[in-house]
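Sanity check record (used in CI):
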Amino acid sequence: MESSLDELIASTGKTLNESKEKLSVNAGAFHLVHCGGRRAGIDSRIDEVAKEIKAAAGDIPFIVEFTFGEYGYEQDGINTCGGLMLSFTGFSK
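Expected output for FIST C-domain domain-containing protein:
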């Protein structure tokens, strides 16, 4: 797990845009889970993350939470623990 601060910040807007592209319909809202470890590392530059998300979300409402201990599964269906993770979900209207 290695990334620069600039990469951590820029990846939030990039990831949200990639998530939007995968949706078959326009999202009505987003639920964005951002790793607490990433948040701690970004520290006083967190306002730049908010700007990235706002630019990518446009007029679509969103909520962001910062969590620790991100668990999920990969395409193989095996549970895994990630680090420095972003987990973005779009909800349709």
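The helical segments are 5-22, 36-42, 46-57. If this sentence no longer matches the regenerated tokens, the check is flagged for review.
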